[in-house]
Structures are given as C-alpha cells and as structure tokens.
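Subject: Sanity check before I submit

Could someone independently write out the structure tokens for this chain? I want to compare against mine line by line before I put it in a report. The sequence has 206 residues.
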Amino acid sequence: MEEQLQNSGWRGSADVWLNAAYEALLETGVDGVKIQSLAKRLNLSRTSFYWFFKDRKELLDALITQWRAKNTGNLIKQTEAYAETVTEAMLNVTDCWLRPELFDAKFEFAIRGWSVRSPALRKEIQIADEQRLDALKQMFIRFGQDERLADTRARTIYLVQIGYISMQTSEETSTRLQRIPQYVEVFTGQAPDQRELDRFFARHQQ
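---
Independent answer below. Compare away.
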C-alpha cells in the first residue's frame, strides 16, 4: 500500500484518466479517446492506465456513466427541486441550461455525436431522453396540468434545449438571461413573478 501511494504520482488516478478521456472526447470525438494518446496528454506511462481500467471499453463505459449521472441525474433532480409555483419550477430547470456543473451541453453534444456510430449508445440516449421527458412531464402534472398538456410542454422545453445543443448555438449569457422570462411564460403559460426572477438572476450573477 505504501509503495502504491508513493507511485501514485506517475500512475495518476482513475479520475485523472477519466478527465483526460472527457477532454479528448470533447475535442476530437471518441476516436481521440485512446490509451496511448491519453498517456501522452498526461505525461504518464501507457501501462499505468491498467492500474485503474481493465481496457479502453471500461474507460468508455465510465464516460457514459459520468454523462448519465451528470446530465440525466441533475436534470431530474432540478425538476423535483422545491418550488411553490410552476414558473419557479421552470426556473429551477433553467438552471441546468446556464450551469455546466448541472448539465454539460458540450458533453451532451459529444455523446450524441458518438452515438451515430454506436447502436448501444443510441439506445442509452433514447432511455435518457425518455427519463428526462417524463421528469419534465411529471413536474407539470404536480402543478395540476393535465397529462396531455404536461407531455406537450415537456417536449417543447426539452426539444428546444436539445436544438440549442445540436445546433451549437452561440449566444451571450446576458442575451439568454434577458429571454428567460419570456421562455418561462411560453413553456408554462404563466409569467414568472418578480420575486422568482430576482432569486433566479441572483443565482446567475456574472
């Protein structure tokens, strides 16, 4: 154990290798996530990789697990966060689109690009889409909207955001923030009150 700790500097760690894989995926796609190229990026020996992962597939699986936990997990949590009104609930979800630590749009884009060549990953994405849409739908149902309208509103919100990601829309944060009250009204059918907006904007001050 002592020897392992002493050598941990040159071996790296599972997180170090996973973070390097994440960066490579965003920069060059899944073809860039190769053990040798990651070792070069990290200035570590190729063999040190095998202290933490059995093979490249296990590393790729870890990336997918990270994406699932971060993007799907956090979005669902935001739909379930405390809110007194449907507009406040919508603002909680909107936090995801403005805070990469909650929902990583670049990661989402890279995963969806990777899925073009991976039927198994396409299935993972289909499952994630269904889970996210259902969470949004249930959010509206909790605030008294009927199931059909809740489903339509959920799809409107989600497809708009996936469109932002797929089109790699470039938009200043200040511009997007200015549009938030109108987005909330379009998505929920109600205008957020000023207190809700004040709390929301306080969370996103530059």
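---
OP: Matches mine. For the report I'm noting this point. The chain has two domains: 1-53, 65-203.
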